[in-house]
Amino acid sequence: MTSKQKPRFGIDIDGTVTTPDTLIPHINERYKTNIVLDDVTEYDFLSAFPHPVDRNEFSKWFKENEAYMYSVSKIAQDAQVILEKWQHSYELFYISARDICVSDITFKWFEENKVPFHHIELIGSHDKLAVAKKHNVDIFFEDKHDNAVMLAEELKIPVLLFDTPYNRKPVPDNVVRINNWVEANNWILKQF
Predict the structure, then answer these.
(1) What would the pLDDT profile of 39-91 be if each residue is shown by its tens digit?
(2) Where are the alpha helices (DSSP H) in 72-179?
(3) pTM score > 0.85 for this model?
(4) Helical packing angle, 79-86 and 181-191, nearest 10°
(5) How many whole angstroms separate alpha carbon 45 and alpha carbon 33?
(6) Distance (Å, rounded) from C-alpha 157 to C-alpha 107?
(7) Would you call 178 helix, strand, or coil by DSSP?
(8) Which domains does the chain show, CATH number per domain?
(9) Contact present, 87 and 73 (Cβ < 8 Å)
(10) Among 153, 111, 174, 8, which residue's Cα sits nearest to residue 161?
(11) Is 95 helix (H, G, I), strand (E, B) or coil?
(12) How far is Cα 104 from Cα 106, in angstroms, rounded to an integer?
């Protein structure tokens, strides 16, 4: 633990604070598919498609629609209540791969969903290591397997990995697989 007064939590947004399936209905509507979360076994929605989809076209569609999709994202069960409790004892630093161009939408979503925060940083890439190191986080909450492993190994901190079909590869000992925010809270209460 560092000499900061309160432990600092690094928290991913999408698939962690929001439900991991929140984008799927939008993708299904656009591509006339009926994918469910269990179909997504890699951190890549296109891997779950029953038919080939042009990656460039998908990226273009996603970029054009991400602000709307993020604005209506579903919050994960119990996330708001638990983060509300945590805000007084811990520093809540959200570090997301979202692009800076959706920062207004992101802040508005946090306000509308009454999700407390001390800092939100949208880095526009999945490489969260430098930002997590810069902010000196004591623990990280993540849903992307390779991010969880890299953060845990490089920073020597515990990472709570929200279990999903797309992140089930093996993990090092300091990556703790959890199913939901209640389990996250129980782990935090034991550790801190």
Answers:
(1) 999 999 998 998 899 999 999 999 999 999 999 999 999 999 999 999 999 99
(2) 79-86, 103-112, 129-134, 145-155
(3) yes
(4) 20
(5) 12
(6) 27
(7) strand
(8) 8-20+74-191 (3.40.50.1000), 24-71 (no CATH)
(9) no
(10) 174
(11) strand
(12) 5
